[in-house]
Request: fold
Amino acid sequence: MEFAIISALNGVIYGLLLFMVSAGLTLIFGMMGVLNFAHASFYMLGAYVAYTLSSLVGFWAGLLVAPLVVGLVGLLVERYLLRRIHAFGHAHELLLTFGLALIFEELVKLFYGDFPVNYQMPDNLRFAAFTVFGTDYPFYRLFIGGVALAMFLVLYLLLSRTRIGIVVRAAERLPSMAEALGHNIPLVFMSVFGAGAALAGLGGAVAGAFFPTNPNMALELGVIVFVVVVVGGLGSLKGSLVASLLIGLFSSFAVGIDWSLASLFDLVGLGPWARSLGGLMTMTVSSISGTIPFVLMLVVLLVRPAGLMGERS
Amino acid sequence: MSASPPALELVGVAKSFGAIPVVRGVDLQIPAGERHAVIGPNGAGKSTLFNLVSGLFPLSGGDIRLRGRSIAGLPPHRINRSGLARSFQITNIFHRLSVFENLRIGVMARHGLRFGLFRPVARMRQVNEEARAILALVRLEARAEDLAGDLTYSEQRALEIGMTLTTGADVILLDEPTAGMSREETDRAVELIREVTAGKTLLMVEHDMSVVFSLCDRVSVLVYGEILATDTPERISANRAVQEAYLGEEPDESSGRDFGQDSGGEAAP
Amino acid sequence: MSPPVSPSVRTPLLLALVLALLIGLPPFLDLGLQNALVNVLIAGLFALAFNLLVGQAGLLSFGHAAYFGIGAFATLHLMRAVEDGLAFPTPLLPLAGAAAGLAVGAVAGFFATLRSGVYFALVTLAIAELFHSLAPHWEGLFGGEAGLSSMRMPWGGLIFGSTLEVYYLALGWVTLSVWLLWAYTRTPFGRLTLALRDNEQRVRFLGYDAHATKVIVFAISAMFSGVAGALQAISNETANYSLFSAHVSAGVVLNTFVGGSTVFFGPALGAAAFTLFDHLVSDLTRSWQLYQGLIFVLVMLFAPGGIGGIVQHHLRHRRQLDWSRLAGPYALAGLGGALVAAGMVFMIESLSVLFGEGYAVLRRDAGGGHPPFEAFGAQWDPAGPLTWGLPLALFLAGLFLIARARRDIAALWESVRSAPAGRPAGRGPEASARSAPSGSPS
Reply:
């Protein structure tokens, strides 16, 4: 029971964090058709920029400014790099963002070294929110979840209630039509790209103070974020939210599950035989918890490429 | 006609996209050796019909028979191997390959070289000769080594027809082969089509009535997914129901070369 | 006859010369260079195998590490069996990598090619990540986290103890594989592969089964990737799950596109250049990967055809080029490029020193402050105007020279393009729409 509650909480919060990063990725793909390999790099940049600023101007200022800095980087990337090679097609854009991801990782290593930096939350946030079954539950986790929820709410209202939102959604469906109606589509693209980067940066700035901030964080989160946007449906914001929570919950529960394929065979009395085979049969869910999201991603890509909630395939 | 099955036979062919019926029960028999045109206003379902016959879309109902054998539900490459080839309205060639290579790819398919991995194609005399022959037939010899993407529009249309011929099919579907051509280019294309489809069965979508007149034995008029009439070009153009269907329901047809406008001047006998 | 394979008459001669050098030179090189050359051969074959899929069939894979790794592990299993007494000739070990690559590639390819475009790329990525995340937990097949190790066993009088022997073994296999890959492009199936890249729909309407075709191309590409992985296993005598990592998949993408995916030997060129540079400079700088990333992005932005594309473009127009007029602007552009590179390298290396651990120690020893640091054999003041002004000046001067040269070069190429072609103009992909970016080193 204790495991269940704590895991559920951790899972939801990790899921919300995943959502903060995947929201921008899926929006950008939906609008521009660009699968941005460098998106998780914005998450990492957010953490490092916030770390740097927090030692200069304090934690809160860092938290606010870091997303703006990262958003600016995103704007510049779209305006001066992506747009330049747009005419060469999606494969080229994909390759360019791929190269940028490498550069960001190496730049971070250049300035901050190969090892984690000591980015910490302020002491006045370091307290237990509540205690379940004798375990203190850190307030900061709830804070991460709260920021993500607030962000989702703002994003949702922005897209559904405002004029900007209508233009963005129109540009997503029919860019040429929206352009013909007098909207500045390049500007919309650039803004969405910048906003997506800023969201990922905010995610990094918030989460980096709790989870390790190191040069691998982009790659590690990046592949999981790909899983999320694929499972949720490329281009679908709601799908991303659902998939984020799904993957988040799965990752946190899987650690405690020691079932294996052989346990399935137990049900029909073939367990011992399966165990004698070893290999895949006896691997527990907990030991291959890193693998299962990719299995899920493959199944979705092959069976229902539009994802849980995507409209296009 | 009853002795041997028609080259191509459509029986109650229907297609809906979602709830919207686009082709609703088309029956059509094309005997071997006939040149047959499908005309009709925009949005009548002509291209959809072509896509159904060539296997690009699955049928919603009905059956399609090639020489008496059903091809409904087969994937495009199987239909092609059964002897039915099509061209495309939008030029659909291999832009970054040479003109000769474009044709040779098709000839290879006829020779069953689908997975030929053990001999250079340059040494396959038969394949190269046949590709050369078709190159000559569509009069593109001078551009054999140029990239297909660098050809002029009407040259690309000729290549498109040539590629349709390469697989040796005896039922040929041409989707608006003269669309976008000048009068002279159209005349040359008509000659080309007449020449290369000699002895074959031809089904074509065409807007230009002069093309239909000079080429085709019979014409079917498709309106709103149904065949209104099938007859010789002369009798079709005299048919009042056809004229009403065109002029009455599609007043916006503005292209000067469309049936609605042309029928008064050129098509009346 | 068509894009990626349009050799001039002199190509066979050139290839013979390269092969002669590869055969004759290594005994006179030091051990480090011999090792580097083994890696060049492996990376070159891997890139060419990868490019069969990417450049010729137009299918962009982001998970080719999977087949490289599978080839390596399969070979190590066979090596261990040989160690245990199985009578199998050591020189034929890569057959295990080829077989495993082919088999896994056929299965993976079957599924991956059900999708196209970005979705295809994502399936390949997911498959590689699947292996990467599973391997450390799979003791029997991949040896867990530590991986598998084995020894090369002597065979038929050959000891396979020295790097040189391994080198010649690799050279034999790579030569054979590259020849097969080259021959492949001349076969009907090779031509069909190119057609598939251009227009899959038309391929189907000409009577070909597009999916089956793609599966076979994928499997063949995986097979040769498996051979490359096998050679790596033989050379290193060990392999672990890191072979499946995204970095390996990324490496082959970099090599291929910097070398030029539209030219048959382009990817090998890129692989050779990067691998040799890696060997030469990795002792000198910590930032080699950063330079690699920068080069890749610059190529993507300014010369999408890669090095091979530029070379091919010039070869194609060699009769129309007036080198007496081009030489000047080209030299200027080259000088500008060198200045830009020098400025960047100076800046990056300075930053690398200043933000490195060594300098932190230096500061502590100096009791705070910013003591001067050493780079390029001189002392530099971290706050000195020269320290940052010099690279900046180099950089800007270089940009200025490039901009000037670029104008002249563009004008000269314009005259080439409008002049009647000496031979059929459109022989390669660059000849049409994309000639400008790959032609002028902008």
Notes: Chain C has two domains: 11-283, 321-418. Residues 11-283 of chain C form a domain with the ABC transporter involved in vitamin B12 uptake, BtuC fold (CATH 1.10.3470).
